[in-house]
Specification:
The complex is a heterodimer of chains A (540) and B (282).
Chain A (H helix, E strand, L loop, with lengths): L1 H38 L5 E6 L26 E3 L5 E3 L2 E6 L5 E6 L13 H14 L8 E8 L2 E6 L6 H7 L22 E7 L3 E6 L12 E6 L2 H10 L4 E4 L11 E6 L4 E5 L7 E2 L5 E2 L7 H10 L2 H8 L4 E3 L21 H10 L12 E2 L2 E2 L1 E7 L3 H14 L5 E7 L1 H7 L5 E3 L7 H7 L17 H11 L4 H12 L14 E7 L1 E6 L2 E2 L22 E2 L2
Parallel strand pairs in A: 1-10, 1-11, 19-20
Antiparallel strand pairs in A: 2-3, 4-5, 5-7, 6-7, 8-9, 9-10, 11-23, 12-23, 13-21, 13-22, 14-15, 16-22, 17-18, 24-25
Chain B lengths: L1 H10 L4 H25 L31 H36 L2 H16 L2 H11 L3 H12 L2 H15 L2 H8 L4 H37 L11 H12 L5 H32 L1
Amino acid sequence: MKKKLFSVLVLAVFMSSFMLGGCNLFKSKPSGEESKAANGEKKDELVLAFDSEPEAGFDPTTGWGRYGSPLFQSTLLKRDDKLKIVNDLATSYKVSEDGKVWTVKMREDVKFSDGEPLTAADVVFTFETAINNGSVVDLNGMAKVEAVDDYTVKFTLKEPQSTFVNSLVATGIVPKHAYGKDYAENPIGSGPFQLVQWDKGQQVIVKANPEYYDKKPNFKQITFLFLNEDAAFAAAQAGTVDLAYIPAAFSKQKVKGMRLETIQTVDNRGIVFPFVKSGEVNEAGLPIGNDVTADPAIRHAINIGVDRQALVDGVLEGHGTPAYTSVDGLPWWNSETVIKDADMDSAKKLLSDAGWKDTDGDGILEKGSLKAEFTLYYLANDAIRQSLAISVADMMKPLGINIKLEGGSWDMIAKKMYSNPVLMGWGSHDPHEMYNIYSSESAGIEYYNTGYYQNKTVDEYFEKALSSKSEKEAIEFWKKAQWDGTTGLSAKGDAPWAWLVNINHLYLVKDGLDIGDQRIHVHGHGWPATDNIVDWKWTK
Amino acid sequence: MIPSLKNANKRSPLNLKQRTLFKILISIVFLAIVILGGVLLDEGRIVTNLNERNSAPSLKHLFGTDWLGRDMFTRTVMGLSLSIGVGLIGAIGSTLIALFLGMAAATMGKMADRLISWIIDLFLSVPHLVTLILIAFTLGGGFKGIVIGLTLTHWPSLARVIRAEVMQVRSAEFVQVSQKMGKSRWWIALHHILPHIAPQLLIGFMLLFPHVILHEAAVTFLGLGLSPHEPAIGIILSESMKYLSSGMWWLAFFPGLCLLIVVRTFDQIGENLRVLMTRTHD
């Protein structure tokens, strides 16, 4: 019986390996042409290896295109390479005196890829659908959207919200006439590309949209392969892809004919601490708060004691930057938030001044009956988070803070995250994210502000930033929320987080492929690189 | 039997029994060293050391270091002793279930026998790695999930053997006589049947052991078991897969080899015990 089973297994393995081999044969065919093309004349096709397949499909009203280019759709506004907001579908936009009414005028020459014109009715339809879908697209601040005439749209907000502009930047416009249940799989839009084929779990093939109104991409066809880290690296080595995302662990190996591009990001990782004392529970009955991390001395000591550069060098092989806030390097980042770290002596002094002493000689500090220890949760299947968690726990041992580790799935972490520190990551081009992570309004809402952080001054700055007329005005208040000289949400102020690193995104790029000036990437490895895909070109 | 004994005497100064005992003793000492090592080795040796990442085996680090600079020798020994611990609990649990069900099937009448045989067939019809993954996953993984999963999946074949043994003993004359003399079922089970199946049980237990350890490693390898920072052998092996393509062979080679040796040692003990037991049993 066992033998039979074994032989069946062997057979299955053989069969599947043949099938996989078959796939490879199939895939290597176009690549043969590619290498020819790369050697000789310019070519107009591109093969990219990414990890994260957008499993929900390509519907902007449910979240597609928030990270990276929406490819198939276009947006009212967009950010340029310097992250300044510029017009896309819009020709101009105006905000009323009270900041509640936004009027957007649009181009009149735009057509969807099926030839139909794009009008205000489509914009209204898109935003109404997005609100009704109740998905990750956060349009809670919007009261109504209406078409003034064929090419003018009026948005009315409940409260003034300067970050509403990001909804206009991130939401691709869908056609009212061609939107249905299967839209996510057959996206029609006014973007630079059209979908040719989507083989779920394998690849997406797109071609240039002839109706596109703006700068046309330099490639007729682009294939996105969805491969895991090993497979993407193997594909790069075999020369079958023009660009492959790779983890830092592979960065030391050279691949012939390809160069390593390391791109700065706000794809950050840090530890979020429960800010309040324990005892309460939230509506779902999950405990809130942690007595140890509610002590500011512990949070500050970890912030000061941790050696961020060592983490970058050790865990990320140097491909990263030390992180001090969730918005490092973005226009609304306050550079005063940078602190001196790896300073064990100051951290020790801070702890002993706050009354933490090792009274029983076990190497762990105590304050009364409270022991300086807590459990740090991390996402188990993410090697970088695991490495960061282990390294930080070991770095804190000499301080006398005992960090126990527990890896788990998000489902498991979600039950623990209000009462235990968690290793999390954020990173977005939308300053509203900072409001989500730090404001008392969003305390305990899903993964936002899990520590129940609250600071009245910070909340006031948030209010002022949101009620500003423009992003420029708001920037001042975003910066002050981080650190205004006396208080703030950064490590200098209340330190509700200990930010650790920004992870550079690494790509192996075929020699001769110019991927333009990459902006500071957001959370997520892969799609953010497509932000400027219309600028990509072959240089030789 | 006797000719083989003579042969054994010719080849070595010890007879077969002594040699078997000797083998068992060595194996036990080896395993004890591994377990003690896991308990006694300093936790400080697996502290991350970002300056000594990915170093190849040397005198300072016998098995090299991993991508966080942790000493692989210490991690391996700790992982093995954890695996042996999990294996011990799992094997004991499985043996107890097998004993209980085997006895129940053979002594509690036709209906019980049918039911239990059906359950055994049911469990044997599915590869138990699959059942194990299912159970461990439902229980949310972790130490508890694995141990319960291992316990609940490894008993069927042993239960079948014990059932057959019990049936054989039960039909023996002295048991029949005992029954006619009015002894209770429990008394017979405890005084007549249990002593007879004890050797089978012990051997079954020893042979379950390597099985359980391998499956524990398999499940943690697949990421369904313990947190990935714990030094379990399955976790170490699955981590090393990521680094094989960068030429860090020592991450997989030494821990894998050690797992093989430990499993083989348990197998040895089981086999030798069987030889010893069946001999004295006869």
